[in-house]
Amino acid sequence: MGDGKLLMVIDCDAGIDDAQAIMIALSQPHVKILAITCVLGNISSTNQVCLNVLRILKVCGKLGKIPVHRGAEKYILPRHSAFDSTGVHGDDGLGDTPDPNAPDDSHIESKHGVNALIDLVRQHPGQLTLVALGPLTNLALAARLDSEFSKNIKELILMGGNTAGRGNITISAEFNFYADPEAAQIVLNDFDCPVYINGWELSIKSAIEWTWYKQYLETKTRKAEFLKIITRKRIHDYEFKLESFIFQSKDLFLNYGWNVPDAVAMMVAIDRRAILEMEQRHATVELNGTYSRGQMVVDWADHLPNRKISTIVTKIDMGILMAMMSKSIE
Ligand SMILES: [Ca+2]
C-alpha cells in the first residue's frame, strides 16, 4: 500500500488558514489524503467546520472523494467560556461569504472523527502522516481510546504552540494550544511518533509579503477567487491596520503580516527540505498560571530528563512555501 504516495490524514478546524493548507495538500500529486477529521476551534461548531471542509473540497473538485468526519465538539477541560476566533475567520469560519450551493451535511461521514483516526492508523500502521491544524482534542482522545495509536503514526506535523511565550489569543498563548491545553499536553508528553511543531513565532517570521499576497489573490482561477472571497473580511481588517502603521511599533506591525500558519505546517509535512533550521527539544504545555495557561514550555537546557523530544521548526524556505501556495490555486 502506498504506491510511493505520501498518505495523509488532516485534522483541522477550518478556518481560512486551514483552507489554504488543504488546498496545498490537494494540489500535490504525490499526496493522497485518506480522510479529513474536524474539530472545533476557529469556530465553536464542529459541524460548521465539516461544512467548510466540504466547501473547500467542492471548489477543488474533490467532493465525495475524501471522507470528512465530525470529531470532538467540546474541548477536554474547557476552563474558559466559549470562545473562538470568529473575529479573524468570520462567524462561519470562512469569512462570512456563504455559498448558496455549498454541500450540506449529508456529505459528512457517520463515523466519529476520533474513531476514524484510530481506524485509519490501525489500517496503515507506520504509514500515515498526520497533519493537525487545529486544537489537538481529537488526537488526544484517539490516544486515550487506543494506547497503540501514536506508536503507529508515521509522523505528526502540527501547527500550534510558541517558543518564546508570544501569544496570539492571550498574552502568552497561541490559539490552538490555548483552546485545549490538556489535549496539547497529552500529545507533546505522550505521543510515540516523530512530532514536528510549527508554532506561532515561526508563522510571524514566515509572514507573506503583503504585495505578493494581494497579487496572488488576483490570479484568475476558481480557486484563487474562492480564497479571495473568504479572505475579503480579513484583508479589510489587515489594510486598516496597515494604514495605521505609522502609529504602531515595527514589532506590532510584524504581528499583522499575512500569516499562513497552517500552510507552513502543511508545507513541512509535504517537503521536509523546506525546514532550514530546527531545534530538537522536549516541549510541553502550561496548564495553570495566572497569565500562561496554554503557553508552550520548551526545555532548552534539559531540566526534565527522559522526556519526549519534538522537532521545533524555527526557519523555513519561503520559496518552497510560495511555490506551493501558487500551485494550490492553479
Ligand atoms: Ca487551523
What can be said about this structure in brief?
With 330 residues, this protein is α/β, with parallel strands linked by helices. It is built from 13 helices and nine strands.
Question: Which key phrases capture this entry?
Answer:
330 residues, Inosine-uridine Nucleoside N-ribohydrolase, Chain A, 2 domains, nine-stranded mixed β-sheet, 16% strand, Inosine-uridine preferring nucleoside hydrolase-like, Inosine/uridine_hydrolase_dom
Question: What does this protein look like?
Answer:
This is Inosine-uridine preferring nucleoside hydrolase-like. InterPro entries: Inosine/uridine_hydrolase_dom, IUN_hydrolase, Ribo_hydro-like. Belongs to the IUNH family. Residues 9-318 form the Inosine/uridine-preferring nucleoside hydrolase domain. The protein is of the alpha/beta class and 330 residues long. The protein has two domains: 6-206 and 260-328, Inosine-uridine Nucleoside N-ribohydrolase, Chain A; 210-254, no CATH class. 38% of the residues lie in helices and 16% in strands. It has 13 helices and nine strands. The chain has helices at residues 16-26, 46-59, 86-89, 113-123, 137-145, 175-179, 181-190, 200-205, 210-217, 222-243, 250-255, 261-270, 318-328, and strands at 6-12, 31-38, 68-70, 128-132, 155-159, 195-198, 275-285, 296-299, 310-316. A nine-stranded mixed sheet has the order 3-2-1-4-5-6-9-7-8, sandwiched between helices. Strand 2, helix 2 (46-59) and strand 3 (68-70) form a beta-alpha-beta unit. Helix 1 (16-26) packs parallel to helix 12, helix 4 packs across helix 5 and helix 5 packs across helix 7 (181-190). The longest helix is centred in the last third of the chain and has 22 residues, at 222-243. The chain is globular and about 55 Å long. Calcium ion binds at residues 12-13, 15, 17-18, 41-42, 133-134, 262.
